[in-house]
Design brief:
By secondary structure, this protein is mainly α. The protein has a domain of 214 residues. It has 20 helices and 2 strands. A two-stranded antiparallel ribbon has the order 1-2. Helix 5 runs antiparallel to helix 6 and helix 14 runs antiparallel to helix 19. The protein is globular, with a radius of gyration of 21 Å. The model has no long low-confidence stretch (mean pLDDT 86).
Length: 482
Amino acid sequence: MPDPNWSQALRTVAPELTLTIVALIVLVLDLVAGRGRKGALAAIAVVGTLLALGWSVSLWGERLVAYGGMVVADNYSLFFNIAFLAITVLTILLSTSYLRREEADLSEYYVLLLFCTLGMMLMAKGLDLIVIFLGLEILSISNYVLAGFLRTRLQSNESALKYFLLGSFSSAFFLYGIALIYGTTGSTNLGRIAQALQANRDPGPLFQVGMALLLVGFAFKVASVPFHMWTPDAYEGAPTPITAYMSVGPKAAAFAAFLRVFSQPLAAMQGEWAVVLWVLAALTMTVGNVVAIAQPNIKRMLAYSSIAHAGYLLVPMVASGELGTSSLLFYVLAYAFTTLGAFAVVILLSRKGEAGYEIAGYAGLGYTHPVLALAMTLFMLSLGGIPPTAGFVAKFYIFSAAVKAGYIWLTVIGVLTSAVSLYYYLRIVVLMYMREPAEESSAATLTAGPLVTLAIAAFAVLLMGLFPGSIFTLAQSSVFGL
């Protein structure tokens, strides 16, 4: 007999099914699409992603659990899914002209991007460690290929190989952690693990080791110190739109699963893992910002910046509670729009052959391309946490959560490292407005996709900075039931 709840199960995963079907359609159409028609496949990918986004919005306010309690569609997962899908649309817009310029306009790029997003969505919806691991692997395998998509370039191949080797080790740690937790609790379901811990307050050393291994796996995916060493090389060698995507999408997905796992079954042990996260947050904020100062390449600078922001995102996890979780969600959205906007400017100013990424090349941009310079200034100020941008409000929320939870010294470290970050963010602003244009300064290629992404990102950064209330209210409504 058919499952009477089949319709609810399908509705629970409707956005993921939509994305999968669209990815397969793009894959099949690639067989009949001739040269010069790849743009149509990109358009199909955008439309399919928007359909999945529409499905996610339509489920808002419901809580649908399906497949034996393995996946859930609640406001928490839907908030992240909407963010993932918006990031994907903007990444596709960043990619079309870039791929044509680099002579790498292959439709499997869009298929891999859609499957990568599918993995991210599964991570956010997973109520079972196996589902989270499945989403993590779908995400990771697609990302490995995308990082080395410019396969004729040695640096791109090196990027993919380093990411693959270290990513495989982290996945092994994560899987072994799942095995140990299953061995001590008898389940991989987050709810049943929580029940087992409530029944046995002392689960034993094997559970502690399993929890530590899960923490290592998550720390690698969010690029937290000391598991960050792959990030600069992978980001520098990957195609620039994928660098933008990797710095926001997979990081947000890892935090979505990270927070669900450590706030549900491990809530009773919050005092133990909060100390570890405190140390990771302090180290990540400090190392990311200090090392970013010395970077002459803007992709490497933004890579270390993303490491620092992973540290800031760990702060509300340490604080926990409703304010901590809602501030983390707000920060993810603010950081995503800011970073995608910054990379849109980078792509517009770069040249064929992955050239034009030296920070010195931004000298005099305020005179040669004043609109791009103004947009880049906005994004640099937001990354540095200067009002009236989204970045300022996001940092205000996370530090408020930390202070309320009593983590004063962590807040002090966060504020001091934010002050350090202003040096390398404002260095770009100084170059753009207070230096003469370089003799070989980049001539911007004003293509439609990156310009649309730039406009959307700039609008979102200002909107969230000037009127944060509605977005923060959505973030707060996403916390309940977590």
